[in-house]
Amino acid sequence: MNAESTEGFYKNAYLYFLLAFAVTVAGFWPSYFSRLTETGAAHHFHGITASLWMLILIAQPLLYRLNKMELHKFIGRSTFLLVPLLIIGGVIMMNMMLNNERYGPLAYQLAFIDLFVLLQFLLFYVLAIKNVRSTQYHARYMACTIFGPLIPALTRLLFHVPWIDSFSKSLHTSYFLIHIVLLLLILDDKRKGNIRLPYVLALGLMAIQQVLMHFAAGWEWWRYLMDLFSGVSY
Question: Is the pLDDT of residue 191 over 60?
């Protein structure tokens, strides 16, 4: 294992994931974290599983840095249980959102984003497990699992920025911020002499998601599937 794998990537990774968790808590503070006693079981199930994933992303590089490899591996194996629960929680929330009349036709666009994020998350998790013996790829694929879920948190948080006065502006700004972070990570890899697939793939998928979400609400087949899934139509 080379110096870059232990020093370059892992040294401060936990701090970046800690920042991502802080952004998530801040974004969901008004609607969830400040109303824990008023929230239903489904929201708690989703909130707990998603929070546990972020805490794992914080803990794993720190444990690696501290050479606590047995605990690192134990927590890694626990994700075989957590990830299916996280996916189930995301699907439940997607169904509840589609059944919430206040979203109206916008629900079809939001459902597309939610499903794309879940599938993207699962893809990067599977790729991380497949590359578990390659530190550089495993770590990067695990890092990529954070970008999709950050979109709803950033979108909520950006509403507090004065010039962002609409949902569309907030949503697109969230995507652009993620694009910038991924570009910086790609440039950092280039600076170190080797651009690897994970961040390039993540950037491509995030860009595709940002473009396609505008058309999803108009796809008859998508509306049909979502109506079938939720039991309602708009």
Answer: yes
Q: pLDDT band for position 110 (50/70/90)? A: very high
Q: Which residue has the tokens 């013996």?
A: 133
Query: Among 18, 42, 57, 32, which Cα is nearest to 157's?
Result: 32
- Per the CB < 8 A criterion, the answer to whether 232 and 98 are in contact is yes
Residue type, 114: D
- The whole-number average pLDDT for the span 81-92 is 97
Q: Where are the alpha helices (DSSP H) in the chain?
A: 3, 13-28, 41-65, 69-98, 106-130, 135-144, 147-157, 167-191, 197-216, 220-230
- Model confidence at 4: pLDDT above 50: no
Domain range list for the chain: 3-230
pLDDT band (50, 70, 90) for residue 233:
confident
Residue 83: both structure tokens together:
């990830």
At 10 the pLDDT is: 55
pLDDT of residue 9: 53
| Integer Cα distance of 3 and 158 in angstroms | 38
Four-CA torsion 222, 110, 58, 37, nearest 10 degrees: -120
Query: Do the Cβ atoms of 22 and 14 come closer than 8 Å?
Result: no
∠ CA 47-45-210, rounded to 5°:
50
Q: Interior CA angle at 117 toward 220 and 103, to 5°?
A: 55
CA-CA-CA-CA torsion for 58, 146, 123, 10, nearest 10 degrees?
A: -40
